[in-house]
Amino acid sequence: xxxxxLICVFLVSTFCLSSQVFTWMxxxxxxxxxxxxxxxxxxxxxxxxxCRHGAATWVxxxxxxxxxxxxxxxxxxxxxxxxxxxxxxxxxxEWTWIGGANTANQMGTYGTQGVPSxxxxxxxxxxxNTWTDASGNFWMFGGDGFDANNTxxxxxxxxxxNPTTNQWTWMKGFxxxxxxxxxxxxxxxxxxxxxxxxxACGSWMDASxxxxxxxxRGLPATGAIVGFLxxxxxxxxxTNQWTWxx
Length: 246
Fold this sequence. Notes:
Layout: H1 2-18, E1 52-53, E2 56-59, E3 65-72, E4 80-89, E5 94-99, E6 125-126, E7 129-132, E8 138-146, E9 152-162, E10 167-173, E11 198-199, E12 202-205, E13 211-218, E14 227-236, E15 241-244
């Protein structure tokens, strides 16, 4: 009995050790590094996003890793907010600069709500929330960043990115910062409903493909004071409507 116990402990220990093996795949091992952008749309072994935090991340249907914005460094050592979009190919171990600017603190170019365009571009930001839908589109909401007027604050905009067409669509919400939420009636979807500007929310996608958002730090229904929120929202992709759920 004692021998069996020892064998079990050995197997568990071996499993735990083997499951924590990391491999350094890419990038530098020093801090505060600037980005190496290369040519827009072309992958290269030397391309690399600059150091950052608070970026948006997705995985596409081919298993590529995507990265958008955050606070960090573009091509200079000046700390800033970014709106650059990157794709990492796991098979080739190469980054591609896909879109956005390689310069600091870019304002948003919203275009017409609901209409995709090659000229549309979310402003530089950090601590936004993200989802990937069943069609492989990427969704992004809010964060701290720059609006259509190049003003920095709490964003309440909802964007969709199609990786096939490489186009952004401003789907819903505000194109100016620090807006209060439009709650409507609890449990009732409406075209005019919209969560207020905020960052660092909880987010999920349910089995029906709805996008869910909880809390964060931002603005409630009234007043200009930023605080911590505990409101729960659901966004229906088919109807393009938000519901204040709880």
